Amino acid sequence: MQIHAPAKLNLCLYLGIRREDGLHELCSLFEPLALADRITLPTLTTPEVGQSRKGVDHDEVVCPGVEGENLVARALAALRERGWQRPPLRVEIEKRIPVAAGLGGGSADAAAVLRLAAGEVADLEQIAAVLGADVPSQLTPALALVRGAGERIERLPEPKPHAVVLLPGGGGLSTADVFAEADRLGLGRADEELAELARRLRSSAGAGASPLSYPELLVNDLEPAARSLRPEIGAALDALRDAGAPHALLTGSGPTAFGLFDTMAAAHEAADALDRDDAIVCEAGIAP
């Protein structure tokens, strides 16, 4: 059995003031990408529920090239704690989403595994929120207005077709470090401003428009903090604009820069002009 875990793009990210719990209020538009990790696991209908596969009495997560505890392992442990009775699984993850690149790859993988328990374990949204701020929105990958610390999700209509060129920049930029730098720089908007921005985003994106039709709202408040830690992000954004991107910005906490395009043909033409080995071209707005 194979499932796909699509990357997510932050079409915008407005940052609020740091809360007492250490998290930040956010207002963001998330959309899925055709770029996705491939997760392979045994067919869950055999053996019978409650039985173990031969030689396996616990869940295993295999993700070549990614060290340390995988968020999928935590997701499985959380499901078991809630009484999930499926047989032990061996989960093999083929990473296609660049790691630590602001594209939500780990969150997408965890959400994909949580989806296996839909209808069998209650409160998957609550489990997802405990695992990470990006996980709840990925339970049902779709264009969404996301608020709070990621737990308040409002699904929006599928946007008109568009494409992106991603420049991952080598990944490895810590989300915690970027938020800490944002705090040091004094970034953050008042709750009233976030509420007004949410209203404008809902109005602009709620009719299924392409994000290229509301570029004035496509802003990432974390960009100054990310560029402070990784100055080459600025060069990547400039390169995308020089290659013809009508709009370019940072996704998430970075370091991935992306350019938006009306068509896949235009995105491929820009990627050819960039002539960079790390450029990724994919459709946006629709999960694979």
Quick structural gist:
By secondary structure, the protein is α+β, with helices and mostly antiparallel strands. It has 9 helices and 10 strands. Strand 5 and strand 6 form a beta hairpin.
What is the average per-residue confidence, as pLDDT, rounded to a whole number? 93
Put simply, the count of helices is 9
Number of strands: 10
Termini, distance in Å?
Answer: 16 Å
CATH class: Alpha Beta
List the uncertain runs. Answer: 44-55
CATH architecture: 2-Layer Sandwich
Structural shape: globular
* Number of structurally distinct domains: 1
Radius of gyration: 19 Å
Determine the oligomeric state from the structure: single chain
CATH overall fold name: Ribosomal Protein S5, domain 2
Helicity, as a percent range: 25-40%
Structural class call reads: alpha+beta
Q: List the helices and strands in order.
A: EEEHEHHHEEEHHHHEEHE
Q: Quote the beta fraction.
A: 15-25%
Main beta-sheet annotation: 6 strands, mixed
